[in-house]
User: Fold this.
Amino acid sequence: MVDIGILGVQGAISEHKAIMEKTLKELEINGRIYIIKDRDTLNKIDGLIIPGGESTTISKMIYRLKLLEIIIDRIEDEDLAVMGTCAGCIILAKKIVDPVENLHLISVIDMEVHRNAFGRQRESFEQFVNIKNFEKPFPAVFIRAPIITRTWGNCKILSRIDDSIIMVQQDKLLAMSFHPELTDDTRIHRYFINLIKN
Ligand code: GLN
Assistant:
């Protein structure tokens, strides 16, 4: 049994739920999915997804609902697995290029992120990308996406487009600048389930 939470304050929540249900079915794993809006539910889960949306809104809400410190504590004390996609990637970064005032970030991954960096060139686009240890390219959907501008310490790069880093892993933390929930391809959600179970 695996208990997965999707942060439910704003963004692509139902899309992550749908693809996670599909992934669990494909893997024949017994799992429960919780939409997280309160502290009690946050304490039940083995892995957390922070969806894409608007990082300033999500960060305000997790601060107001007093979820921020529990998420940080559970990562630091219990090695909680977390996957952040797009805005979720920004919220996990230790450093932000052009930081916005009063942004309450989880700040656990050794990376610097540039918000809307792709968006300035192209609002949204889909591109097949190579991901480390994936046999075939993954159809990645980018929407006003950030770029990971640099990494250090324990953070490992899993994917790039040209020189731009778009996916990283630091132990049980996974972050990517695109939206893996907006395709039918369940490989990234499978990868995350494996992280949770390890
Ligand atoms: N540009 C958004 C932000 O800064 C992220 C966009 C997305 O999650 N699709 O939060």
Summary: Residues 13-27 form the longest helix (15 residues). DSSP finds six helices and twelve strands in the chain. The chain has one domain: 2-197.
